[in-house]
Q: What sequence folds into this?
């Protein structure tokens, strides 16, 4: 018996050597075409009248051109020199990938895809088939960024940047940092999946605008089921974030832009929102109470913030504007019928019986939503008055 | 042994058994029964016959006290016996001193003479009587002098052992920053003294033994009675007694002959060059085996974790000791698995590494014509060769090989695009990590297991690594060293044992001895909850 | 040169003559057996029946299973150094003299138990193979994964029962600590609204289906009917074991809770392997490894190994006790092709899930009703040691 055990080891080694011959999944790093970003566009009409629906564009980094990677002698240009952009068409997303694969020497590897851009044109027609294909692919992450582009999505992959070596990395960092710093809600594709499969949530994702050589965050794209129905701009997104308690959002300009520079820029620091659902009445009423702490970043108004009285006035001023903007945003949402506020979820969670009785989709546009801001100015940055500020009585 | 399910002894086994019996019969001393003859000349002739062609045998006839009738002869081997002892305490005392001081009392009766020689005549410290020829031969061969007297059939064996030997010096293999600098030598007596010097306890026992049918090497089994398990001591004794090897040249022979699982890559007997380490093991209730001719003493039973401990862990303050142990454990894991993790990530799970690193790795590997497994294998084998080469080379050239091998060849290989830069880092780190393991044989186990782990990583990625890791775990759990589970400390676990495994509790907190070695006397300090030193401070 | 010095104490036979499992080791066997394949699919299964209440149901199911588990430890501690193969005839038939009736009655039960274990091992290995093949090693044949896992289980049968205990004690922290870490890290996407309402509307039938599914997740603790008899019984033993059972209950409940809280019930129902998906959304800031699901699967392989190997060992050991001769590994060899064959029977994942459910129903008989029956009978007939006589000589020095 002891001998028996020892021979097990030998058998194991022989067995393993035999199996080594068929290492089924071994595929070396350099034998994969690593895709870092995907863009999906609607196919322009082709001359030969093919029926292809999508043009899928992928960005592939060229390892040798990347600094730090052994062979890279004197390399290190950023931007488009370090990546290859390829595109293919197909009647579905995956079909396009198959077509793309035909033209590649190695197998496509989607494990490092960090950004997927979909053009608005495609999104408005529905993304169900694309999402389905993405969900079934085990290589696709759940934490990648999905963004809708106003123009051609493929342009988003062509951005020129020297800051990052791989343009897709630049994009990823842009989305990631915006959500980390609380200037954008960090909706990943996973959240999109969740919203898409839930009967009460409406998918929401980044909305961007691509230029010739760059890309800019431009708010949120709103979906009804899998079809994009509209978008809200960045300021509205920040108000939405306030209401959802997601983060302080970006810096806000208070006052009239055209009013001879009499304006105020504030930086929100922390936000705390209380939501109240008044279910007794029909239609339902919702009340948001936002408590915002802000710093003053720029002040060209006549108010000298040295005086507590002025601070009161200014914070009321700020609150009034924010409330107004928030209501505008809510109005927009209700017009689209997109429950980005996730009120339905709240209703289901806290008033389950009521929710079961009503059809929330129809109900949402009628809901009366009230917003009050309570702004606290924490830091003014300077004390005393500047020359343009008039003494206030 | 229960022999159910095993076939009865086969013919070949029977033949083997017979051969062993015959061999043992041949080895039985032919002179065991031969008594010494009363006549000196006959005895001398017999000895001359036995020690034929012995160029270094010295037979020195002498007359006790100068009396013609009191003839005697001293037999010894030149070089083994100390000339000073022979001259001053045997020859001079027997011939000169007697003449002046005991002239009148010199006895003539054989019995009386025997008494007299033993008590008065010989001034050497250790004198024994031998009756058979076998004893005499053995005594001569170990370096004692034999005094044969005419008309007396007993010989005197005088301890004159004194050959050239190495002094106590600092151990080379187990160096510490803080701790005693003395190390064992090749002489068993010095070694036992080094241990005895540290434990002044009458319970410290030393069982002598002679092993090796031809070499007759001195073996000493040391243990502290009351601490060491009796069953373990008996097991050691019986396993040693079973050895019928003809030559024991090093304690490594003993280690291989008494270990439980010769096929296991893991060492199950610990060796040490350091007396302080041996003593600390004795105090834990373990048994120490000393072998003459080897500066390495063996410690049994040995468990897995003790090979990753160094005496320094106890000498330094406990936080330092614990931290060092954690570092050592991490390097153990790295030394074992780093190349295989590299293979797994490079060939199976590239999605796990960050995109930037992925691209950088792909760039580094772009020119490498081999798969990651081949790359890793070649590099690891190269490092093993380098290591072996630098061990064998004389002191001054050794490090040069390391530099040439690691820097020049490595750099050139990267430049030539044969290996990726990351692979060089991985291999370098692995090698350094394997040097952190304090025990050489434990380090070799890790080096050995690294290669199958790499093969499995190349088959199934992380899954394969885990597969082999589980096999290693099962194997480790099945090992036993002298009835003590090899993984003792972890399993069977016990809180007080865990205090001295991956980290080290403060000394005042380690009140109990590790259980697996010792069931009788578990407390090593007072049972009070106070800290020993602190308590004294408060009193004073 | 002839080597003769050899250790003579090596035993060939796997039968321990002594109680060789420490209380902690038995606890480790329990915990690591329970933490098995169920963890991956359980949250979806239960959520399908009872929606948001899934985590409560998991907890309830765990408590029910814990009750049966307690019966099993009480039962097996009554019969030191015996397995169910030996004591079932005693309980069912005459306790002294020739006991044909007991043997006749207990034979189908014990054989059924063995068959059930073989089935469980097969299902476990198949589920694991499916997960591995579908998520990390897409091109590796399923058969290879099953064979390698089966090899590990078989490798364990080459050793004594105490080795099983030791392996479990050593591996449990390797499974437990990452699981706790994952539970800890996956809280970041938790959304309170997703787990509310605590008690949505569902029918009583669904509720019981959920409870049943909840208790099925805790499959495998009935192997204590084999290991229990070889355990040193001290005053800690019961405590350690209930604690060991509570650990998987805690982990399972938390994972179900967090899965619902991170995905919402509707999404959860669409995900094939919810726990794996849960790991995908873990972000460990500043850590070099990005997608930890492959690493998790590797660690989780150890969990599946302990589950399958413990049960497999129990089946082989029990067979050895029934046949009353031979070393365990012979039966390991005999059962291996059987397990392999059964494991390849389900056609796809969905029919596998059906098989798993079926196994769950059968488990109710073997881990619930059978021990309960035996225990009640043993109590009534006064067979076996009464609880007060079960304790082994409690010696502080010897207790390890």
A:
């Amino acid at each position: 018996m002891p001998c028996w055990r020892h021979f097990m080891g030998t058998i194991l080694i022989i067995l393993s050597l035999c199996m080594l011959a068929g290492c089924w999944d071994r595929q070396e790093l350099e034998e994969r075409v690593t895709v870092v970003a995907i863009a999906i566009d609607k196919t322009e009409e082709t001359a030969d009248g093919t029926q292809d629906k999508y043009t899928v564009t992928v960005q592939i980094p060229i390892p040798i051109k990347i600094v730090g990677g052994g062979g890279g002698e004197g390399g290190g240009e950023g931007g488009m020199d370090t990546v290859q952009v390829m595109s293919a068409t197909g009647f579905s997303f995956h079909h396009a990938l198959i077509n793309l694969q035909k033209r590649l020497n190695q197998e496509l590897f989607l494990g490092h895809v960090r950004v997927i851009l979909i053009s608005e044109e495609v999104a408005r027609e529905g993304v169900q088939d694309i999402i389905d294909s993405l969900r079934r692919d085990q290589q696709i992450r759940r934490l990648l960024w999905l963004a809708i582009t106003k123009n051609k999505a493929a342009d988003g992959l062509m951005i020129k940047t020297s800051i990052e070596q791989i343009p897709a990395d630049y994009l990823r960092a842009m989305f990631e940092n915006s959500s980390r710093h609380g200037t954008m809600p960090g909706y990943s594709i996973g959240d999109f999946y969740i919203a898409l499969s839930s009967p009460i949530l409406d998918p929401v994702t980044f909305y961007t605008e691509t230029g010739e050589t760059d890309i800019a965050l431009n708010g949120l794209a709103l979906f009804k089921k899998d079809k994009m129905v509209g978008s809200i701009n960045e300021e509205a997104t920040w108000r939405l974030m306030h209401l959802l308690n997601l983060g302080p959002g970006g810096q806000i300009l208070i006052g009239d832009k055209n009013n001879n520079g009499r304006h105020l820029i504030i930086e929100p620091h922390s936000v705390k929102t209380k939501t109240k659902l008044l279910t007794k009445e029909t239609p339902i009423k919702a009340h948001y109470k936002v408590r915002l702490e802000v710093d003053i970043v720029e002040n060209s108004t006549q108010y000298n913030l040295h005086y507590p009285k002025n601070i009161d006035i200014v914070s009321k001023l700020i609150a009034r504007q924010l409330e107004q903007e928030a209501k505008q945003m809510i109005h927009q949402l209700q017009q689209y019928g997109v429950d980005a506020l996730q009120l339905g979820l709240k209703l289901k969670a806290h008033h389950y019986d009521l929710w079961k009785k009503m059809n929330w989709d129809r109900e949402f546009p009628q809901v009366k939503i009230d917003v009050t801001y309570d702004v606290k100015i924490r830091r003014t940055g300077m004390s005393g008055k500047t020359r343009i500020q008039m003494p206030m009585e | 042994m229960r022999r159910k399910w095993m076939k009865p002894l086969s013919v070949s086994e029977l033949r083997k058994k017979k051969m062993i019996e015959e061999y043992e019969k041949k080895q039985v001393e032919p002179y065991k029964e031969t008594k010494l003859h009363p006549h000196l000349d006959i005895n001398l002739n017999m000895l001359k016959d036995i020690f034929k062609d012995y160029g270094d045998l010295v037979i020195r006839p002498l007359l006790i006290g100068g009396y013609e009738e009191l003839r005697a002869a001293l037999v010894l081997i030149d070089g083994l016996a100390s000339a000073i002892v022979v001259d001053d305490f045997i020859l001079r005392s027997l011939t000169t001193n007697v003449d002046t001081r005991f002239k009148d009392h010199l006895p003539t009766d054989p019995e009386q003479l025997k008494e007299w020689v033993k008590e008065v005549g010989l001034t050497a410290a250790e004198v024994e009587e031998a009756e058979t020829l076998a004893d005499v031969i053995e005594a001569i061969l170990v370096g004692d002098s034999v005094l044969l007297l005419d008309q007396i059939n007993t010989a005197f064996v005088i301890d004159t052992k004194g050959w050239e030997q190495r002094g106590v010096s600092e151990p080379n293999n187990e160096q510490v920053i803080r701790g005693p600098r003395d190390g064992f030598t090749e002489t068993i007596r010095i070694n036992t003294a080094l241990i005895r010097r540290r434990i002044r306890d009458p319970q410290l026992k030393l069982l002598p033994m002679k092993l090796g049918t031809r070499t007759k090497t001195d073996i000493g089994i040391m243990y502290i009675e009351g601490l060491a398990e009796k069953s373990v001591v008996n097991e050691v004794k019986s396993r040693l007694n079973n050895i019928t090897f003809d030559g024991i040249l090093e304690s490594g022979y003993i280690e291989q002959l008494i270990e439980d699982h010769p096929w296991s890559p893991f060492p199950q007997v610990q060796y040490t060059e350091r007396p302080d380490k041996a003593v600390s093991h004795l105090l834990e209730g373990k048994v120490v085996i000393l072998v003459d001719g080897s500066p390495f003493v063996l410690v049994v039973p040995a468990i897995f974790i003790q090979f990753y401990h160094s005496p320094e862990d106890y000498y330094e303050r406990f936080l330092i000791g614990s931290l060092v142990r954690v570092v050592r454990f991490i390097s153990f894991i790295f030394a074992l698995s780093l190349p295989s993790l590299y293979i797994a990530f490079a060939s199976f799970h590239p999605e796990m590494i960050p995109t930037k690193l992925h691209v950088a790795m792909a760039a580094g590997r772009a020119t490498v014509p081999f798969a990651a497994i081949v790359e890793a294998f070649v590099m690891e084998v190269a490092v093993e060769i380098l290591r072996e080469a630098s061990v064998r080379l004389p002191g001054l050239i050794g490090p040069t090989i390391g530099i040439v091998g690691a820097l020049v060849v490595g750099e050139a290989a990267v430049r030539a695009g044969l290996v990726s830069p990351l692979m060089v880092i991985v291999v370098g780190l692995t090698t350094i990590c394997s040097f952190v393991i304090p025990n050489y044989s434990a380090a070799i186990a890790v080096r050995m297991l690294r290669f199958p782990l790499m093969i499995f990583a190349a088959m199934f990625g992380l899954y394969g690594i885990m597969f082999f890791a589980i096999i290693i775990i099962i194997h480790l759990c099945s090992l036993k060293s002298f009835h003590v589970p090899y993984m003792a400390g972890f399993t069977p676990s016990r809180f007080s044992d865990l205090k001295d495994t991956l980290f080290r509790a403060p000394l005042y907190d380690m009140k109990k001895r590790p259980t697996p070695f010792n069931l009788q006397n578990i407390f090593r300090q007072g049972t009070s909850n106070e800290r020993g030193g602190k308590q004294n401070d408060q009193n004073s | 040169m002839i080597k003769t010095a050899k250790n003579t104490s090596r035993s060939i036979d796997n039968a321990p003559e002594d109680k060789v499992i420490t209380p902690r080791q038995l606890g480790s066997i329990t915990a690591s057996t329970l933490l098995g394949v169920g963890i991956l699919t359980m949250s979806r299964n239960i959520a399908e029946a009872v929606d948001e209440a899934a985590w409560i149901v998991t907890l309830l199911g765990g408590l029910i299973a814990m009750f049966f588990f307690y019966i099993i430890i009480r039962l097996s501690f009554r019969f030191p150094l015996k397995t169910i193969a030996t004591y079932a005839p005693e309980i069912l038939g005459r306790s002294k003299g020739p006991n044909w009736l007991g043997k006749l009655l207990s034979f189908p039960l014990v054989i059924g138990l063995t068959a059930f274990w073989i089935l469980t091992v097969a299902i476990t290995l198949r589920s694991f193979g499916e997960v591995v093949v579908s998520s990390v090693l897409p091109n590796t044949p399923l058969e290879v994964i099953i064979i390698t896992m089966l090899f590990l289980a078989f490798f364990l049968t080459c050793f004594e029962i105490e080795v099983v205990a030791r392996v479990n004690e050593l591996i449990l922290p390797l499974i437990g600590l990452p699981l706790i870490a994952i539970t800890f890290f996956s809280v970041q996407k938790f959304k309170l609204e997703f787990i509310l309402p605590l008690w949505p509307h569902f029918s009583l039938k669904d509720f019981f289906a959920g409870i049943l599914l909840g208790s099925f997740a805790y499959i495998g603790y009935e192997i204590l009917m084999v290991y229990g008899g070889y355990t040193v019984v001290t005053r800690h033993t019961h405590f350690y074991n209930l604690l060991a059972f509570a650990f998987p209950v805690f982990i399972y409940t938390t994972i179900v809770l967090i899965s619902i809280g991170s995905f919402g019930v509707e999404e959860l129902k669409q995900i094939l392997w919810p726990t794996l998906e849960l790991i995908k959304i873990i972000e460990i800031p500043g850590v070099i490894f990005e997608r930890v699901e492959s690493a998790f699967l590797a660690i989780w392989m150890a969990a599946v190994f302990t589950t399958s190997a413990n049960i497999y060992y129990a089946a082989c050991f029990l067979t050895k006790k029934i046949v009353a001769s031979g070393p365990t590994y012979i039966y390991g060899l005999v059962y291996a092709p059987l397990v392999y064959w059964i494991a390849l029977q389900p056609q796809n994942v969905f029919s596998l899930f059906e098989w798993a459910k079926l196994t769950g129903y059968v488990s109710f008989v073997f881990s619930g009703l059978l021990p309960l029956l035996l225990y009640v009978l043993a109590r009534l007939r006064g067979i076996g040691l009464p609880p007060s006589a079960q304790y082994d000589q409690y010696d502080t020095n010897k207790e390890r």
